[in-house]
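HUMAN: Mind making up another protein with tokenized structure?

ASSISTANT:
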Amino acid sequence: MSEVLTTSYKYIYMTSKEHSKLIRLRVRMRDLIDGDIFKSAVNTTMKRYPYFCVRLKRNGNRYVYEQNGAPVAVIRSQSGVALNCAQSNYHMLAFSWYDNRFTLDIFHGLTDGTGAYELMRTLLYYYCSQRYALTLKGAGIRLFGDEIQPQEFENPVDNVRLPDAEGKKYSTALNLVTAGGLENDTVKTVYSLAVPEREFMRFTSDNDGSPGTMVALLLSRAVAKLYPDCRDTIRVALCVNQRGALKAPLAHQCLVGAAMLEYKDRMRSLPFDRQATIYRGMVFAQTLEETILAGVAVQKRLSERMQACKTDEERFAMAKNISHGAMRVQTALVSYVGKADYKEAEQYIRDFRTLTCAETPVLIEISAVNGRFVMDFIQCFSSPVYVSAFLSELDENGITFDLQDVTPLELPEICIFENK
């Protein structure tokens, strides 16, 4: 059995040694990892997710996922292993552990944050049950032995009627690399912030918003104060889960769109709560079912055009145009999957990180686990200029934060085109 890639085809041709299109979930536990128990938990977990046990195969002029019966790689390592090669038994995901940390690396063309969270929820259930000799509650967790509904593995994009929509045209967005004179600063860096969940949720509720919307607004305000006279639009893209509009809550595929939040000139003099109301309105308008489905239609059409190209060179060129297009119209990107809800296992988690590689100069990945929001400020440069401005916004709004660490962005390779 093979699965044809639909809307995520672009990730194949966007990935390279410098830009691994994967999602890395890294968990720091309360205690040292027991390697044997961890491997056993991974093995049980993967029996529940056969649609993640695949290898990427070329079939004529296109790629498909085919079942891969080889074991999923589970190794003791701080850096992980390359995907889609012998090290990972040609799987598109792998697990690693070291000291009290473990990591899931998974190809972004296989799933998105929502799908990766489901997998992690199952793994934490099995690992913590064995590691602490407990009987944890399984409600709300996908477990081995469950009947796997067709809605989990069928691609909803193939089974829904989509509108005949055109991609929206946007003005040029402010480029944070150019604006900050950072063209020669090419060290990809992650600044990790932690904020008390209860405090930030209270702030969010007071402004009648959501965590993702609030972070997008705080970042927009920070950038606007740095560049009060900029002519280009400050536009932050907020990731949107398309499953609701597709009537496919169980789907595992990569199903992500974006709401474009523009910090307009007329907003700058308004109080924070009025700005929050405007951003909330923008999110509401762009997350209506018909609007999301129009975005899915555009993504599907782009994927079909890419698959119809005669050569890989044409596909690489098209993928590069897509990346450049995102850079041109987005100042930054904010991603929030939602509260992780890892059930009883959360009490054993001390830190949870989400890392990936984006087309925008700045990406903020937000995780909500065990009473904290962790905001991974992922940059294509090392300068702290935007992080510092963002922290000032948190400070001015009375939001407590902890800058946990500053590290290079290190992601394993995906060996699709080893010479690219």
About this structure: The first helix runs from residue 10 to 14. The mean pLDDT is 93.
